[in-house]
Design a protein that fits this description.
about 90 residues; mainly alpha
Length: about 90
């Protein structure tokens, strides 16, 4: 259990640690990894970002963040359409 400065249990810190551990970069559905990779390259192309196959460690974090942000936005839109029955 997480504790605050007074050695009291701190549920907020425990929740934050739990939320952070869920952001491990793992694909929840391994079968979707190929589709997510394809989406990443499509979005990078749409944004005019030169994303090469393999290692992209030289890509500035701002550009990588744009790609990830647009991926998240698009995935949320797809989920909302799916939930509303307008797939």
């Amino acid at each position: 259990m997480y504790q605050n400065q007074n050695n009291q249990p701190n549920q907020q810190n425990a929740q934050q640690a739990s939320a952070n551990s869920s952001r491990s970069g793992r694909t929840v559905v391994p079968e979707a990894k190929g589709a997510l990779n394809q989406m990443k390259y499509e979005i990078a192309s749409e944004l005019g970002i030169n994303l090469k196959q393999g290692y992209n460690g030289d890509l500035p974090s701002r550009q990588a963040g744009y790609i990830g942000g647009y991926m998240t936005k698009r995935l949320i839109e797809q989920a909302e359409r799916s939930m509303s029955g307008k797939a």
